């Protein structure tokens, strides 16, 4: 579901709005809960998503078994943001050339 833009937004909104409920169902020792954030966030590409993630993790600092996947998710989003910053103009130029 999180592989499309609408699905990604839906999954992220559900995850952050229901985090406490998810913890009560799966517990912090469940790797599935940690893996979920990495799966949802792997295509995040802007600062607003990164900020929302940081806010959620500050609000709920105890990650249990999901500590490493939280870090991986943050790293992935940072890499995505950096990738866009360094390559966006080149991609736009290439598309401009193709469409001309």
Automatic annotation (TrEMBL):
Protein name, entry field: ERAP1-like C-terminal domain-containing protein
Organism the protein comes from: Rotaria magnacalcarata
